[in-house]
Amino acid sequence: MRVADVMSREVELVPPDATVQEAAVAMAEYDVGAVLVGIGDTLEGVLTDRDIILRAVVDGKNPAELSVRDIMSSTLFTCREDDTLEDAFRIMSERQVRRLPVVDADGRLAGIVTLSDLGRLGRDPRRASETLRELAEPHRRRAAAPNEAPAPESERDRRDDTL
C-alpha cells in the first residue's frame, strides 16, 4: 500500500499570522491535534496541541494575542504520496513524529498522514503500536529522570516531536 491510499486529502491551512486561539478553535472544530500552517499551497510549518501547551500556556502567553508563527514548528518532515506505508513508518520513527504532511511529485501539499491512519488502514496495526511506543519512549525517559538537566530551549521548543 502507498501513502496515497490512507492519507487525508482535505487539509485546511491556518495562516501563520492567525492567532494561536484561532488555530486552537480550528483544531477543536476539525477534532484534530495539529494544523498545518501556510498560505495557498505553501507549507510553512505545523502547530500541534502540544506546541500550544508548551510554548504558550506554560509560559503564560495569551493565545489571543500570540501569532501561530511565534510558536509553530517550522522544521517539517514530509513524505510523498507514492511512498510505501513502511517508508512513512520509518520517517515517523526516525523523526519522532506522529503526523507527516504529504507532498505530490512536484513538492506541493497533497494531504496529511497520521500514525493512526497507518495503523487503522494499513496492513500492520501492530507496527503502528510499536512505532507509537517508540515515539513516546523519549518522553518517558525524560519523565523518569526528573533531576536531569532539561534540553536546551532551542532543541526542546523547536523539535517536531508530536507531528
The percentage of residues in β strands lies in 15-25%
Task: Compute the CA-based radius of gyration.
Answer: 16 Å
Total count of strands: 6
Count of domain modules? 1
Walk across the major sheet and give the strand order: 1-2-3
Count of DSSP H/I helices: 7
- Topology as H/E string? EHEEHHEHEEHHH
Main beta sheet? 3 strands, mixed
What is the CATH architecture term? Answer: Roll
Helical content, roughly? Answer: 40-55%
CATH superfamily: CBS-domain
Please state the oligomeric state of the protein chains shown.
single chain
Report the top-level CATH class.
Alpha Beta
Mean pLDDT: 82
Provide the fold topology.
Layout: E1 13-14, H1 20-30, E2 34-39, E3 42-48, H2 49-57, H3 68-71, E4 79-80, H4 85-95, E5 99-103, E6 109-114, H5 115-121, H6 125-144, H7 153-158
Your description of this structure?
With 163 residues, the chain is of the alpha/beta class. It has one domain: CBS-domain. The chain contains 7 helices and 6 strands. It has helices at residues 20-30, 49-57, 68-71, 85-95, 115-121, 125-144, 153-158, and strands at 13-14, 34-39, 42-48, 79-80, 99-103, 109-114.
Keyword list:
163 residues; 42% helix; three-stranded mixed sheet; CBS-domain; alpha/beta; globular; disordered C terminus; single chain
In short:
With 163 residues, this protein is of the alpha/beta class. The protein is 42% helix and 17% strand.
